[in-house]
Structures are given as structure tokens and as C-alpha cells.
Amino acid sequence: MKSYKHIVFVVFFFSFFTVFAQEKSKKQLRTEQKLEKQKGIEKLIDAKAFEFVAQNSNSQIFRFIDLTANPNFVRFRPDFIKSEMPFFGRGFSGLGYGSSDTGLKFEGKPEKFEVKKVKKGYQIDVEVKGQQDFFNMTLSVSSQGSATLSIISNNRSPINYFGAISAIEEEKKE
């Protein structure tokens, strides 16, 4: 009878600890999620098709401006760029006073689209000619997807946006 209790105890002991030994720690789960996110960002960059959405902005005149309630995006593709970004800054020649041109809204085929792998992420350099302006954009993307977009234009002061990249959402037709 005593040996039966010992056998049951030993079997219970090993089965109990093998269940807990197979469970992953929170640190391991976070590391796996981080690696999965990095692979997803790498796929977006390799495909050269992604969307940048800004959460805040910083220009030479204004301090940080929260853009979370303001819909905005720049869609990047090697054959087509579309921008619907707000602009907070100084306009120069070529912009009509009181015109409906209130933001960095343009689309076109990029004259330059370069993707470079840098130390902690990627750098994408794009040049696009809009209807009335020329835009030089630099997008710096971390391996986790956070990004900084700098836009320099001929007719406006430089501006920076801070946000993240994601897969392009298809436009809804109304």
C-alpha cells in the first residue's frame, strides 16, 4: 500500500511540473510578439506598399499638434503616392490666399523611391511632383512599425509627422 502511494505521488509530481515547464513566460510571449511584429513590418517594407498614419505633428512654427482625431494618411507604392495630410506652417509662393488648398494633399508617380536598411529599421526616400509643388519625403521606420515622416516642399515650410505604418486599407466607395 505504501509503494502504491509513492508511485501515485511520483506520477502526480512529474505530471504537475511538466505542465508548468511547458508554459511560456510573459517575457517569452512579449519577445515572440515583438519578432512577429518585426517580420510583418519587414514584409510591408519589402513589398514597398504600406500606409503611414500620423498621430501628431511638429512644424517650425507650431509645437506638437495631436492628429488622432484628424483623419490623415500617406499611401506609399513604388508606382503611386497619395497624401492626405494636414499642414500647420508657413506657405510661400504659389499658394493662393484663402484658397481651398489647406493641407499636403497630392498624388502622383514618384520620381524617386529608395528603401534603405539602417541600423534600427528602414529609411524610405521619396520625391513626388504634385500639381503645383514638388515634395521630398523621408520616412524613417523602426523595426516595430513606428515612423517619422519629414516632408519638404518648394512652397511650404518643412514639417514632421510622427505615427506608424501599416498595411494599406482599401478605399471605401460610397
Automatic annotation (TrEMBL):
Pfam families: DUF4251. It comes from the Bacteria. This is DUF4251 domain-containing protein. It comes from Flavobacterium plantiphilum.
